[in-house]
User: Fold this.
Amino acid sequence: MIRLLLNILWFVMGGWISGLLWLLGGLLLAVTVVGLPYTGAAWRIAGFAFWPFGKEIVPREIVTGKGDLGTGGLGCVLNVIWFVLGGWYIALSHLVIAVAEAVTIIGIPFAIKDLQLAVVALAPIGRVVVDKR
Assistant:
């Protein structure tokens, strides 16, 4: 019940904007051939940005039990390109929002979720969103 309440508060207080911006970013990436590998990652993060409570972001190899292209050397190269072309300023924006949220006691859980979004914005390739159950 608390998780639902936190998700509703998150969504109403700005989570819908964050999620829509991640969806838009994924759409813009899908239009280009170069950005296509990042589209799926952006849309996975959008789902997390809409309703983050009760979910966490983990490396894909933990979920599948084996490595693949996104978790190996190619994934590392794609994450470096992502970081240079845009990941750093997306992470910075989530960090600034987290600092503003952490000023109040009620905002601390929201700040933690924004910090998780900041971390995944640095290197989204090879990450998946899973339920905490």
Notes: The helical segments are 2-31, 36-50, 60-64, 73-101, 108-122.
